Structures are given as C-alpha cells and as structure tokens.
C-alpha cells in the first residue's frame, strides 16, 4: 500500500511540476520573443537572427524557470493533496510527512543535477554563440538597419541624422547634426554610407553635400564630395565574458574571487532548488488552511528573496564586502535554518484537526513573516 501511495503522490507532483514549468516557460519565452522582435524592429538586430537568438537563450531561461517551477509546483501539489485529505490518508497508511518530503526531493535532485550540467556546459556554450551572433553584425550592417523617414542617433559621432530615403549602401538626402567639444556641425548630404572594412576603424562617409559650421559672428559653408568620420572599433572579445566560461575554464582561474564567485553562483542554483523544496513542503502542510493565494504569495516572497541573494551575491564579492565562500555559506545557511524551522514545526506532533492546531495555524503566517522581517532588516543593515 505505501508503495502505491508513494507512486500516486509522486505522479501528482510530477504532473503539477510539468504544468507549472510549461506555463512559466511559455510566459518567459514569450517575453523574450517580444524583446528580440522589438530590437529587430528598432534596427538593433537582424530579423533573420531572431529565431537563433531565441534558441540560444533557452539555457539561460531554464536557469530561472526550473527552480521557480519546482518551488511553485511543489507548493501547489502538496496544497492540493492536503486539501483533499490525501496527505492524511497517506499518513494513516504509514507514509509519514518525512517520507513525503523525501518523495518531493526526488525530482528536485534530478533537476538540480541537470542545472549543474546546464550551468557549467550548455549555458556557456549558448552564451558563446549569442556573443558571436551579436558581434557578427558589423557596424556597417547595423548602420543599414536604421530607418529612413525618422530621426536616427549616431552614438559614435554624438549626433543625429534624418534621411528621406534609403539606398543599397545607406541612406539618401541626409540632414545631420553632429556635436563636438568645441563646435557643432550641420550637414546636408546626398548620401551617407558606413564601412567596417578597415581593421582598426569604422567609417561613416557623407557624399556630395554641404558642411555648415555655426560661429558667433558668421557661419562657414564648405562643399565636399566625400566627408569621412573615423572612430576605433570596439575591441571587446566575446570570450572575455565570464558567462561564456565553462567548468574547466573557470577552474583554471579559480584563484580569482570573481571566477570563484561565478562557480559558487552556478552551484547555488542547484543547492537552492533542493533547499527550496525543503521549505515548500512543510510550508504547504502548515498553511493550507489559509488558502492557496496566501500560500503562494508568502512562498514567492521567500523564494524571490532567496533567488535574489543567490544571483546577486556576486556584487558583495566585487565590492569586497564578503569572501565568495562566506557569502555562499551565509546565504544558504539562512534558508536551510528556515527549512529546518518549518520541518520542526511540522513534526511538532500537533494534529491538524485539533483546536490547538487551528489556533496555531492562524498564528503561523505572522510568525513566518516576523522571522523574515527580522532577516530582511538584518541584511539591509549589514549590506546597505
């Protein structure tokens, strides 16, 4: 009987986890699609690259979606089982709450192992491809993506231009204003093009036009056939991005605190997934009487604060506030203590249908948030 009940609980849990995963993945993937399509419409990304960029963004999306879906899915699944008294039936059949927690840890451990593989191997490879795609568009290609019939900004020249029409190589009938430290230039040109052929410099070339230099007493008018503006190319190399480093690359530079912090951050996602399940199960068992909305709301506050510390603790390392190992230990210790605290309350021996349990359940939400209020004040005082 316990094996059948265990299989049933695990089956219900997996169903809820998968539904939650696909809903959250769909929402985030849709938002990413809108963002990249907007960049393509604004001329920041070639339309033909949108689908590739989206595909290579999936591993990074999974790093957010998997921990969130596991935590929320576990909350909802245990809540539903508790509400329908199936948890009570399982307890009476010999499956205590500790064994139920162990069942819930099974998918979390599997997904945590996948997160380790994804964080150290799959995601860095995808980030390398994203860096390659972003750098594959030359300056000239990006320049052509600017639209005619609107004001376009040229950041490299600290100026703007308006083009009435487009040509094969650039734009036609140009009005431009360029600002410098000493003078402001006004340009009227028949055509403007861009070139990335030089190894060290990008070029913007205005053809067949007039250059106006406004002065205090008079304006200077200069006719030109070709007017060149040169500026250095961006020398940033894609592989210098730490997010493109895999496990072996990070180990080679583990003496650096930044690289050590990156290793611990990626490991933290997997560890957070397991600890968050240890929080979610007893939280659902104790708060089911308060309703699903209050349960999910309070659970998300805990999870988001945990996730924020995990992905944001590198800032403390960069500013020299904490050593990477110290902030790693402090962050997970706090939430592990919270998980043990919840487990202790859940195993306190108070029956859920007793008067004492109902009174205790009403006080539970206040106690939980009082504890977290203390933690938030402590962290704000300590870090800020």
What can you tell me about this protein's structure?
The protein is 63% helix and 16% strand. The chain has 384 residues and is an alpha+beta fold. The chain has 2 domains: 2-137 and 240-383, no CATH class; 140-195 and 197-232, no CATH class. A hairpin with a 4-residue loop joins strand 3 and strand 4 (184-195). Helix 7 (257-287) runs parallel beside helix 10. The longest helix is centred in the N-terminal third of the chain and has 40 residues, at 2-41. The chain is elongated and about 95 Å long. It starts with a helix and ends with a helix.
Estimated radius of gyration: 29 Å
What is the quaternary state of this protein?
single chain
First-residue to last-residue Cα separation: 54 Å
Overall number of structural domains:
2
Biggest β-sheet strands, sense, barrel: 6 strands, antiparallel
- Helical/strand content category: alpha+beta
Tell me what portion of residues adopts beta-strand conformation: 15-25%
Shape: elongated
């Amino acid at each position: 009987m316990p094996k059948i009940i265990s299989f049933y609980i695990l089956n219900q849990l997996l169903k809820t986890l998968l539904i939650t995963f696909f809903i959250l993945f769909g929402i985030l993937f849709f938002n990413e699609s809108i963002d990249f399509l907007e960049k393509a419409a604004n001329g920041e990304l070639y339309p033909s690259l949108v689908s590739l960029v989206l595909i290579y963004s999936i591993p990074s999306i999974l790093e957010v979606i998997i921990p969130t879906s596991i935590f929320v899915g576990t909350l909802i699944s245990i809540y539903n089982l508790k509400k329908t008294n199936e948890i009570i039936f399982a307890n009476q059949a010999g499956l205590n709450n500790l064994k139920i927690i162990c069942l819930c840890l099974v998918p979390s451990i599997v997904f945590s192992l996948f997160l380790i593989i994804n964080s150290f191997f799959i995601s860095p490879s995808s980030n390398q491809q994203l860096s390659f795609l972003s750098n594959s568009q030359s300056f000239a290609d990006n320049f052509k993506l600017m639209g005619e019939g609107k004001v376009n900004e040229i950041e490299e020249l600290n100026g703007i231009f308006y083009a009435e029409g487009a040509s094969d190589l650039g734009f036609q009938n140009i009005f431009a204003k360029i600002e410098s430290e000493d003078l402001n230039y006004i340009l009227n040109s028949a055509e403007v093009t861009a070139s990335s052929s030089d190894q060290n410099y990008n070029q913007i070339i205005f053809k067949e036009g007039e250059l106006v230099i406004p002065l205090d007493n008079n304006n200077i008018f200069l006719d030109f056939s070709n007017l060149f503006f040169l500026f250095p190319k961006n020398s940033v190399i894609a592989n210098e991005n730490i997010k493109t480093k895999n496990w072996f690359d990070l180990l080679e530079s583990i003496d650096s605190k930044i690289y050590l912090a990156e290793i611990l951050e990626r490991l933290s996602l997997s560890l957070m997934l397991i600890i968050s399940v240890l929080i979610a199960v007893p939280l659902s068992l104790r708060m089911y009487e308060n309703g699903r909305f209050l349960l999910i709301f309070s659970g998300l506050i805990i999870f988001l604060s945990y996730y924020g510390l995990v992905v944001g603790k590198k800032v403390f390392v960069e500013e020299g506030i904490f050593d990477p190992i110290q902030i790693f230990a402090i962050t997970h210790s706090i939430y592990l203590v919270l998980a043990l605290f919840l487990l202790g309350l859940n195993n306190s021996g108070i029956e859920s249908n007793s008067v004492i349990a109902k009174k205790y359940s009403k006080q539970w939400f206040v106690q939980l948030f009082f504890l977290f209020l203390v933690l938030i004040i402590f962290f704000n005082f300590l870090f800020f």
